[in-house]
Design goal:
The chain is an alpha+beta fold and 378 residues long. It folds into 3 domains: 85 residues, Rossmann fold; 61 residues, ATP-grasp fold, A domain (Dna Ligase, domain 1), CATH 3.30.1490.20; 189 residues, 2-Layer Sandwich (D-amino Acid Aminotransferase, Chain A, domain 1), CATH 3.30.470. It has an 8-stranded antiparallel sheet with strand order 13-12-9-10-11-14-16-15. Strands 3-2-1-4 form a 4-stranded parallel sheet, sandwiched between helices. Strand 10 and strand 11 form a beta hairpin. Helix 2 packs parallel to helix 3. The termini are far apart. Bound molecules: adenosine monophosphate (AMP).
Length: 378
Amino acid sequence: MSAILPGSTIGMLGSGQLGRMFTIAARRMGYRVATLSPDQDSPTGQVADREVVASYDDLDAIRAFARSVDVITFEFENVSYAASEAAEAIVPLRPAGRVLRTTQNRFREKTYLAEHGFPVTPFVAVNSAQELRKALHGFGGRGVLKTTGFGYDGKGQARLESEFDVDDVWPSYEGAPAILEAFIDFEREISVVAARGASGQFAHYGAVENRHRNHILDLTIAPASIPEAVAREAVRITEGVLESLDVVGVLCVEYFLDRAGKLMVNELAPRPHNSGHFTFDANITSQFEQQLRAVCGLPLGSTEQLRPAAMANLLGDLWEGGEPNWRAAAYFPEVKIHLYGKLEARPGRKMGHLTALAATPELAARRVWQAREALTSR
Ligand code: AMP
């Protein structure tokens, strides 16, 4: 395939912060970006050349959008398969629609991984309270119930501690396809963001540690303080996943590391990921520039990390007492402030993040934590 060069237009399905950071990277390299989503004045639209407001299910709008760009990528994986097919019939879609189809449904994704020999958290499809009870029993009475579609940041998830929880939890899942996963008493959570180019070139950002709060990513520490062999194994599995799915683009694999040192895939995201935001400031090539290079058929850039880093998310909750104290956070000279231009701060909504660079990952984590604390000082 011939490369899509600067001056060309990239079509971005989705208009959130991932699209915004992609657009900043793309415009820096002289590309134009058009975004399509149902939202107006979106985080991506604010920095893109063109913002198309349309439903992802409006296939005519998707086709018209496809005709106006040179390649399409996405930052939001719940685009319907029909929409991805309509786009693909006109212009290259990278990663391909079939990758979206596999990863946008937890049951399909986990089944695919298990069938291809990748280690995954034990899971069972459940369609009734009775099936849930049986599955829970099979997992020793503890599990996490998840809807198979439209799940992210812990949305559509419930933790069950015993069979007595079934009657409380099941009614809100009734009718929606769901899976029950065994509850993993993990030692820590890690992820690997990686990219695969059009000719199969592979690049990765190493294993990073993720700490969640209320099922939402709170802190990423890069690199993760784990044994070298575990980090290598995580990268090896990640490379296998990108190859197996024939991904052209960026994909993140999230893992649980259990107390015996065993890795299990929790989930895949076929796009840049929150746990790779630090690469914007800490690496030679960010995950967003890498997505651009991959989808345009350019050679991948170096993923070398220049300094240890830590990233802390800024959720809407921080706005509860009024506008955060940006001036106080700006006193930290090695902390970068990223805000996504979202107009309304709601609890749990990702409004921005901070990245700290330091001599060690631990120092970076402490620094980013302190800077975030400073945001609520008056
Ligand atoms: P997910 O949306 O599936 O990535 O889940 C969000 C977070 O919930 C994970 O990063 C974990 O912290 C927690 N979680 C999800 N599934 C499980 C599980 N099977 N066992 C333990 N914790 C889980």
